[in-house]
Design a protein that fits this description.
Layout lengths: L2 H26 L11 H4 L4 E4 L4 E4 L2 E6 L12 E6 L5 E3 L5 E5 L5 E6 L5
Parallel strand pairs: 5-7
Antiparallel strand pairs: 1-6, 2-3, 3-4, 6-7
């Protein structure tokens, strides 16, 4: 096999591997308890869960978030708090009438899902 053929084969196999990894990532997004899928950009296959209504409140200019320990699987120490302004891409529409929050294992607020129509 020539050096050029080897390089082409390596490029082709690399492209195939990247395609397979992308397909695997799309399959690994997880579902809300109601059966609809969280967005992969938010959930990393495990980071999203429903929260009590009081955990995500509409406020002037956006949403105020406060998730206490025990209200979300990723919140085990202190509460996770944050504010997400209207228009931020981290605000998603919930597939049900519940609020859902995506929190990384390090405690970073990733996304929120609010019922259709907001609040």
């Amino acid at each position: 096999m020539t050096r050029r053929m080897s390089a082409v084969l390596i490029l082709w196999l690399s492209a195939l591997l990247w395609w397979a990894l992308l397909q695997l990532g799309a399959v690994m997004a997880h579902n809300a308890p109601g059966g609809w899928s969280y967005d992969l950009e938010c959930c990393s296959t495990m980071d999203c869960a429903p929260v009590p209504e009081a955990a995500v409140r509409e406020a002037a200019g956006g949403y105020s978030v406060r998730v206490e320990p025990g209200q979300h699987p990723m919140v085990t120490g202190s509460a996770v708090t944050g504010f997400i302004a209207h228009g931020d891409s981290r605000i998603r529409v919930s597939g049900d009438s519940d609020r859902h929050v995506c929190i990384s294992p390090s405690g970073r607020l990733l996304c929120i899902y609010v019922p259709p129509g907001g609040a």
